[in-house]
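Exercise 3.2. Students should predict the tertiary structure of the chain below and write it as structure tokens, then compare their answer with the key that follows.

Predict this chain's 3D structure.
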Amino acid sequence: MVQSLYQRDGDWYVPSILTTGPWRADAMHGGAPSALIGALVTGAMGENEQVARVQIDLERPVPLEPLVGLVRRRQVSRRVAHLEMELSTTAGRAVSARALLTRWESISIDSDEWSPPQPPDHLVSMDWNHLYSSDSGPIFVRDAVEHRLIRGGYGVPVSSAAWLRLKVPVIDGTEPCGLSQLLGVADFGSPLSQTTSIGAGLALINIDVNATLFRRPTGPWFLLDATGQVGEGGLGLAVTDVSDLEGRIGVITQSQVVQRYDGSR
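Answer key:
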């Protein structure tokens, strides 16, 4: 039984079959390396720092091969630092990312009491059998992430919202941080946002993930409330309000491109 997305082997992160994407059997879903980026960011932060923004560029399909992470830190000022990160296979870089860190300042603010539209424990888990056959083996979408829909859904051309959580740790033997749990499911803002029908045999694929936050995320559950627009040139934009069980935490934006897709892996 696979218990995590990655196993640590020295400097390398060895992906499990749970990282597999729905598009092709030899490549990961974008959520898996994004979750790993979250773990790298958290590992490079000081105790008195917080994340203001993470930008992840999925430069090419990430193969189902071991990844090595590179983190470079640049101190901008006493209060601000930048992290630049890469995930690479033996063939070269597959993912690049940047994070903006700020110094934690303890302040007192007045905020309205927040209650979710429908908490996840009042909803049932989504059944994926109508979209993905279990004969194809484990995939990240269905087997590593739990989805509880509030409205709309995947493949439905309406504005959609859902609670999501990672069902397994990101790195074996390591307690997942809130940021890696968030980035692991942030990718789903793109399919939830697709309110425009773009024609048979076509799909909108996001090529980046950008999370801008105003407080620390607390996992494992995150509410993604997504909307999207598509231009005539085949460029889409997904904008997702994101919350955890304590309230709103920020926004996720993603650029999308049109790709031909017949529904098979």
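Discussion points: Residues 31-44 form the longest helix (14 residues). Residues 66 and 235 are 31 Å apart (CA to CA).
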